[in-house]
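Help needed: design a sequence for this.
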């Protein structure tokens, strides 16, 4: 066969927050990616995991949306709903592991872009003018670029007139960011993950890095091989624990007790930096008073870790020359997630482990652009760069830049938006790239709530579980078809470049947002993505000096005070913090149990999370041939002793039931989970873990408790 010439396109992996640099090898004639190479990026040094290597063919999947779709009850040529009952026609029968388009499509008709956009703009304007801006909301997405996030939040704020805009950071690190902003004045990481190379101790708290940040975990393993002591703390033993110097299996949800136990030992044995505490922190006495109550014996009673192991870990951390701390969703996704993060920050601050090589605080970001989307203002209480909407001077700055008055009230978060819809306070929602019908806790409640909306518009690349319930579906471009910037977990801003042509009539997300804005009477006359990026950076401090030219091939860390330097600043806060007094704040926390604890009726603790091969609600990875083949089905991990007690053999199907719903899936025997605890990944629509999860939220970060609810197991 003749050799096909392949074009090389340098880009960034669309999945996790590691942000691996890669090259797509593209058969342009066939509009097809043939294979992927890892590039020598700062984050990956040519490495890729299975998702980056094989998870690209979703973009070429036959189910890609190619035309705007309008629910059939909207007669052609009319801008209003023919049915008086907006709920009746919503939804479709769903079976199998992908949405069955043949079941759902009869509820929709194809439309031209003009008709769809006119309908969307008219209905959104009507909802705003009839019910007021507070009845409007937008869900953006960390799967989108900084430019898309920026125009989306601008549309919601400047055109809808509300701050009701949020995205999946609410389900991810909202509690970590709340704690970081409160204590050290910045929500970003203080050191890159490669900084572990200079650490002699690394604490990995509630993070399953080999599955969720696989290439970052290769840095961790290398560091362990060179002598860094890895301390792994997690109720479900992650694979990286094989490389650990010590692994502590805490009981689910007892993080505060465990870390207070460590703090107790550090302070009782003088293993803290008194000079650093004196010069750079506040709140030490209150912290000391609280942790004095958490002796290793007391902490052990709660968290289940032996007192001697608590002492051993504290002594290693406290006597380290340089200790670095990483954490993940095991810390953040709790009703006490902000407290968990506060404890980790206190550990770091009392030992002076910040601002030096080999030290730092690093909440590992989940999605490839969750940092960038948050930086771009896709959060309800802050404009771009975490500038607070409630601050009159800041608001005046954005009113001047955008030329309209802005709402002074912080908006609703993801879970609060759902509740507002349920209470009939929210009437219209624009959802760009999110899939709350699978990703949000207690999805039966989410469905009930969002089915009550007067108008739901979904912009996506597939007919997702959420799109099934939409009034209008707008076909967008995939990551592989567009130019944009993405900020990884390290604060590295990189350019993603188009490798494929979009299918059919699919359009760029930012162009769709601008078209809707134009039609609603607020012109957004951008002609290219870099125009949007330049407007965004002009309103921030963090992104000063960054533009498409300088981001070039390798990207750059923010902040980048020196354009001529090779890179931005790797290690932050070597001399104080961006807080009002320049000091880090020590916030004492008391242990509180999870909102719903096991009982006789629901005796197991359910912990949810992700698998290496899949990504969030599976819209992309379950349409990637290799990934779906490697991990084709949902399962529940159960400890062998529990399986034996239930009389269930590994591989048999079981029913898992919580107070909110029930799913059926295969049982797998695993000692990763402790006795009395089970684990289910949330990617699988046919056995959706979030049917079971509880929608209780952390009072500060407003993050749901995905890591803890009570369930029972039974034969189907
Ligand atoms: Fe992509 Fe993350 Fe895997 Fe890198 S580690 S290839 S960014 S999924």
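Sure. Designed sequence:
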């Amino acid at each position: 066969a003749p050799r096909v010439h392949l074009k090389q396109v340098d880009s960034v992996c669309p999945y996790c927050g590691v942000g691996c640099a890669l090259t797509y090898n593209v058969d342009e004639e066939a509009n097809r990616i043939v294979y992927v190479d890892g590039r020598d990026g700062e984050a990956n040094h040519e490495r890729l995991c299975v998702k980056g290597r094989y998870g690209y063919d979703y973009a070429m999947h036959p189910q890609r949306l190619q035309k705007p779709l309008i629910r059939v009850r909207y007669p052609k040529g009319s801008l209003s709903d023919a049915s008086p009952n907006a709920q009746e026609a919503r939804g479709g029968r769903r079976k199998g592991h992908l949405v069955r388009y043949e079941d759902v499509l009869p509820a929709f008709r194809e439309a031209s872009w003009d008709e769809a956009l006119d309908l969307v703009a008219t209905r959104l304007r009507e909802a705003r003018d009839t019910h007021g801006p507070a009845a409007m909301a937008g869900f953006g997405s960390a799967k989108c670029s900084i430019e898309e996030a920026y125009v989306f939040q601008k549309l919601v704020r400047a055109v809808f007139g509300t701050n009701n805009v949020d995205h999946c950071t609410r389900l991810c690190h909202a509690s970590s960011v709340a704690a970081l902003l409160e204590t050290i004045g910045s929500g970003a990481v203080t050191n890159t993950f490669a900084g572990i190379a200079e650490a002699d101790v690394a604490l990995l708290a509630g993070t399953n890095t080999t599955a969720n940040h696989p290439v970052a975990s290769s840095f961790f393993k290398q560091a362990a091989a060179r002598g860094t002591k890895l301390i792994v703390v997690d109720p479900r033993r992650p694979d990286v624990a094989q490389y650990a110097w010590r692994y502590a299996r805490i009981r689910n949800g007892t993080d505060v007790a465990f870390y207070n136990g460590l703090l107790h030992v550090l302070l009782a044995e003088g293993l803290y930096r008194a000079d650093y505490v004196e010069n750079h922190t506040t709140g030490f006495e209150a912290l000391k008073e609280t942790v004095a109550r958490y002796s290793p014996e007391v902490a052990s009673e709660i968290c289940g870790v032996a007192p001697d192991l608590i002492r051993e870990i504290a002594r290693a951390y406290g006597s380290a020359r340089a200790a670095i701390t990483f954490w993940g969703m095991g810390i953040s996704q709790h009703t006490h997630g902000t407290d968990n993060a506060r404890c980790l920050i206190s550990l770091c601050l009392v030992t002076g482990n910040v601002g030096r090589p080999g030290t730092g605080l690093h909440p590992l970001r989940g999605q490839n652009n969750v940092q960038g989307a948050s930086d771009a203002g896709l959060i309800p209480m802050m404009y771009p760069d975490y500038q607070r909407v409630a601050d009159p001077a800041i608001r005046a700055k954005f009113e001047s830049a955008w030329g309209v008055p802005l709402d002074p009230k912080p908006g609703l978060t993801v879970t609060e938006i759902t509740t507002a819809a349920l209470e009939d306070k929210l009437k219209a929602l624009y959802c760009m790239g999110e899939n709350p019908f699978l990703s949000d806790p207690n999805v039966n409640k989410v469905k009930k709530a969002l089915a009550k909306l007067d108008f739901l518009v979904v912009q996506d690349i597939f007919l997702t579980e959420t799109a099934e319930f939409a009034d209008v579906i707008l076909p967008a471009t995939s990551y592989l078809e567009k130019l944009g910037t993405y900020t990884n977990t390290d604060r590295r801003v990189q350019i993603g470049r188009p490798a494929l042509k979009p299918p059919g009539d699919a359009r760029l997300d930012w162009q769709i947002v601008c078209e809707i804005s134009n039609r609603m009477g607020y012109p957004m006359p951008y002609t290219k993505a870099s125009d949007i990026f330049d407007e965004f950076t002009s309103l921030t401090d963090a992104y000063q000096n960054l533009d498409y030219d300088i981001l070039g091939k390798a990207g750059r860390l923010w902040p980048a005070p020196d354009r001529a330097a090779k890179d931005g600043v790797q290690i932050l806060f070597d001399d104080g913090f961006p807080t009002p007094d320049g000091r880090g704040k020590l916030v004492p926390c008391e242990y509180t149990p999870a909102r719903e604890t096991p009982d006789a009726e629901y005796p197991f603790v359910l912990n949810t999370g992700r698998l290496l091969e899949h990504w969030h609600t599976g819209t992309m990875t379950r349409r990637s041939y290799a990934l779906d083949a490697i991990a084709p089905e949902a399962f529940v991990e159960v400890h062998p002793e529990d399986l034996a007690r239930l009389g269930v053999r590994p591989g048999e199907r079981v029913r898992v039931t919580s107070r909110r719903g029930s799913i059926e899936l295969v049982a797998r025997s695993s000692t990763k989970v402790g006795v009395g605890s089970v684990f289910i990944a949330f990617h699988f629509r046919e056995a959706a873990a979030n049917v079971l999860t509880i929608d209780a939220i952390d009072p500060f970060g407003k993050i749901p408790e995905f890591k803890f609810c009570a369930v029972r197991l039974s034969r189907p």
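The chain has a mean pLDDT of 94.
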